[in-house]
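Recall the central idea of this unit: under ordinary conditions, the amino acid sequence of a chain determines the structure it adopts. In this exercise we apply that idea directly, starting from the sequence alone.
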Amino acid sequence: MARSMDVEERRRTVSAAAWRVLARDGLGALSVRNVAAEAGLPPSTVRYTFPTQSSVREHALTLVFDGTAARIDALPSDLTGTAYAHAVLVELLPLDDARRIELDVYLALGTAALTDAELRPFHDRVVEEMRQWCARILDALGVPATDAEYETRRLHALVDGLALHVVRLDPGGDASWAIDLLDRHVAELAARAATTS
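Accordingly, the structure predicted from this sequence is:
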């Protein structure tokens, strides 16, 4: 049992180090040697946990999904309608250091996934989960099924665009405008759904 916990702790340590290397130095610096140095571990230990550079990338991208999913799963279960939509959407924006690093990792590895066949399924999983969260939001707002596909794509694009603006165009700035924009969009969707039901 202790050995399993040691392995899991090492995976977390190496993954956190990989995120820091990616966020600070970019994708080109994401190597077993650099991650090992960042984690304060010998390269052989990192290679034991993640034998290839691809496995480090894949795990780092999986952690983006896992972190976001954990935050959303931790939301109060009694949230409905616009309150549910607001709570989920706020978790999808890079509003603190941890979420900004998540987005940096996602952007770097998402770009790499375009030409890396091994990484692509991990990237596609994150994109599909994002789409599913958007679909659940629309369902909670009562958006009719006839509009669901279009509105899911629109909300997904809006969240992705806002996230990029927050992290790239105004890093460290006040992101309340992005939350306000999302809240207004959600309110419009809810009002339109109420008139068609």
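The mean pLDDT is 89.
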